[in-house]
Amino acid sequence: MVYINGQRVFFKGVNRHDTDPERGRAVTNEINTVRTSHYPNNARMYAMFDHYGLYCVCEADLEDHANQSISDRKSWIPSFVDRIDRMVLRDRNHASVVMWSLGNEAGNGENFRACYDAAKKLDNRPVHYEGTRSNGNYGGGRFSDFYSKMYPGMAWMKQNTSNLDKPMFICEYAHAMGNAIGNLKEYWDIIESSNSCIGGCIWDWVDQAIYEPLELKKGIRRLHTGYDFPGPHQGNFCSNGVIPATREESAKLAEVKAAHQFVKFLVQHVSEDKQTVDVRLTNAYAFQDLSAFDFVYDVVHNGNIVATKRMKLPAVLPGTAHGISFKLPKVNLKKAHAKGEEVLLNLRVVYREAQTFCPAGHEVAHQQVALLNRGNLPALATSQKSLNAKTKETATEWRFTSDKIQAAFSKETGGQDSGSLLQRNGRTYRTRFRRTQYYI
């Protein structure tokens, strides 16, 4: 485990590149942890980390991905150590740096002994390196104060995150390309219940897509990936961020926020007779009590918010819990239950006043709970008359006919023929359905 100022902390982080769709690596400055993958970031970022209280895993610009054998060649030691020295000397006065990382996927060689010693000579903060995978199951076996792993599955997480002789750091996981991060909650259920895992960093924070310079001159701001340029390239493989290159919020960001939230909700009891709910809030912050927050709840009846209530939270200390009991206005649970109606409860914790980093009312935690599930829908009345339908296959299409519809589908495209007809209530309609396109 890792303790900061006497408190156990979890690193709920992302990997981050210096990238901007217009300026490239020349960024303007914009989770509780950032791993500067795979090089020390723009120097101004560290001032922001210090100011807002973000933890930083400061990583050296050291990667020999395609030729890791040089990590065992003594002639390369000066080049390896030089990159460690420059990183530590530049950034060691930043309080946000909680660990140094010796590089990324650069081999298991003895040169990293010199790198580890060089970092410790200049600064006493702990050192991370994943590349020393001497035991085969995870890295960090030597030249590292942490064990480390990339992209583990759930079975691995259950077997390798507790009862270790040094902390486990998941330096890359939950690859955020496309419709991703769906099982982040399962990762954090294991991490927060472990006694050795200190957290991890999602790969990665933002899509590395760019604007095309000639289009910019015409006022066109359209994002491009490798597919839009001559090779060699990896297509859109660098578009694997939690947020898009334009920095708008995304569904993936909402998923990350929910999995990382520092206030946990548990509905302990619901009384239909008294119209009351008992909720327990647990403060999972390391240093902050809950006195700056309000507890807000919405009563949702059959899909509509019928009531919203708000109350101040007391100074619930880190690592402790607080019980809240409240009445449910604008809904009768007994009657709703008898009618098979749905009643949901939206629970939220928000900042009461504006902070340096967010406006008043900013939500830091939420959860939706079903108090009553919707009953079964009534059975549909159906005609007992069977459908008189025929199908026919030709060399180019499939045809389907009945007394209500005529449809033809192309074997080549899957699209529907323009001659398809639908008869309903004595009228004839021309139908046209499009094939769904899938991009992988």
Can you give a write-up of this model?
The protein is α/β, with parallel strands linked by helices. It contains 8 helices and 24 strands. The strands form 6 sheets. Strands 7-6-5-4-3-10-9-8 form an 8-stranded parallel sheet. A 5-stranded antiparallel sheet has the order 20-21-22-23-24, with no helix packed on it. A 4-stranded antiparallel sheet has the order 16-15-18-19. A hairpin with a 2-residue loop joins β21 and β22. α2 (77-91) runs parallel beside α3. The longest helix is centred in the N-terminal third of the chain and has 15 residues, at 77-91. Residues 25-30 and 435-440 have low confidence and may be disordered.
In short:
The chain is an alpha/beta fold. Helix content is 17%, strand content 30%.
Lateral strand order in the biggest sheet: 7-6-5-4-3-10-9-8
Biggest sheet details: 8 strands, parallel
Strand pairing plus helix content: what structural class? Answer: alpha/beta
| Unreliably modeled segments | 25-30, 435-440
Key descriptive features of the protein:
single chain, about 450 residues, alpha/beta, 8-stranded parallel β-sheet, 5-stranded antiparallel β-sheet, 24 strands, about 15% helix, about 30% strand, disordered C terminus
List the helices and strands and how they pair.
Layout: E1 3-4, E2 7-8, E3 11-15, E4 33-35, H1 43-52, E5 55-59, H2 77-91, E6 97-101, H3 111-122, E7 127-128, E8 147-150, H4 154-159, E9 168-173, H5 184-193, E10 197-202, E11 210-211, H6 213-217, E12 223-224, H7 251-260, E13 263-271, E14 276-283, E15 293-301, E16 304-312, E17 321-327, H8 333-339, E18 343-351, E19 363-372, E20 389-393, E21 397-402, E22 405-410, E23 421-424, E24 427-430
Helix pairs in contact: 2-3
